[in-house]
Amino acid sequence: MVESLADYEALAESVLPSDVYDFVAGGSGSELTLRRNRAAFDGVTLTPRVLAGISEPDTSCRLLGERWELPVAVAPMAYQRLLHPEGELLLAQAAAAAGIPYVISTLSSVPLEKIAAVAPSWFQLYWLKDRVIGLMERAVEAGCGAVVVTVDVPIMGRRLRDLRNSFALPPDVGPENLVDKVTEVRAHTAAAFEPAVSWDDLEWLRERCPIPLVVKGILDPRDARRAVEAGADGVVVSNHGGRQLDGVLASIDALGPVVDAVGKECVVLLDSGVRSGLDVLKAIALGASGVLVGRPLLWALAVEAVDEALELLKQELRDAMQLAGCADLAGARELSHGRP
């Protein structure tokens, strides 16, 4: 029986091959940051308001010029056909039904055009050698509403579970937006990704990108300022779900300083560690415009429950808002918060 969004992980683990489960669940190094993301969320306290007279909280929001039913987007995640034969298409359709944006990964296992045809989408762009503009132009032509350029993967973090499992993609799953034939993910990243990307490159991309540009992978408020100065319409405070440099601070701990640095000038999204509607409320209270949700939705995809999972996430957020005395997200941003 599924009673919370977090329950899907155990269900998925029971049906997935162990190496696929580890590929999704694992982090880099000793997984210090992976654990810290959750510990930091658990340490955030909220002070609810009472007698607010709320019968039905309003969870809707505006992000990047569009109105959405929840302050949530589906995080960009690679190779979703590892978890279900329909992969990205099934999760994108569920996002469309839930009224939230779906962020298409550069490394999606379904072509971006097919995904954008079934759901309002943003496109996550990895900086690949000689292919950045071509991918961006495809995303624009497909109708994507934003480009989310990921800047925290100059090289892939050392993901020890994958190394110990000798993890490789099966023959029928690969990066369908590229022409590459891939089995070993780490080797492909080393060969295809450009490690020496700079702020000059971001400014160059901004000049050529005709739709909103969001920079994902920001932890330092100085980098958030630089992103805004380079023309970014938004930033995503993210440590890549604990999958890049191990030992960095939790994303939720980095959120406040980033909001203080740029919160009035651009959209600030939070990624890494979100596991419930209560986590969404905490992120909003700490200043986020919205959040990206990743692993819980992959676990739901593995057991063909993505529509149910997104409905559960919405109900968890509504319950948390009502218990906290928040009629809407503006009220959520006024909640007092702290740490024990």
TrEMBL record:
TM stretches of this protein: none
Binding site for glyoxylate: Y126, R159, H240, R243
InterPro entries per UniProt: Aldolase_TIM, Alpha-hydoxy_acid_DH_FMN, FMN-dep_DH, FMN_HAD, FMN_hydac_DH_AS
Ranges in a coiled coil: none
Pfam families in alphabetical order: FMN_dh (PF01070)
Requisite cofactors: FMN
Residue ranges of every copy of the FMN hydroxy acid dehydrogenase domain listed in the record: 1-340
Binding site for FMN: 76-78, 105, 124, 150, 216, 238, 271-275, 294-295
CDD domains recorded: alpha_hydroxyacid_oxid_FMN (cd02809)
Keyword annotations of the record: Flavoprotein, FMN, Oxidoreductase
Active-site feature positions: H240 (proton acceptor)
GO molecular function terms attached to this record: FMN binding; oxidoreductase activity, acting on CH-OH group of donors
Keyword Nucleotide-binding: no
UniProt family annotation: Belongs to the FMN-dependent alpha-hydroxy acid dehydrogenase family.
Name recorded for this polypeptide: 4-hydroxymandelate oxidase
Source taxonomy: Bacteria, Bacillati, Actinomycetota, Actinomycetes, Propionibacteriales
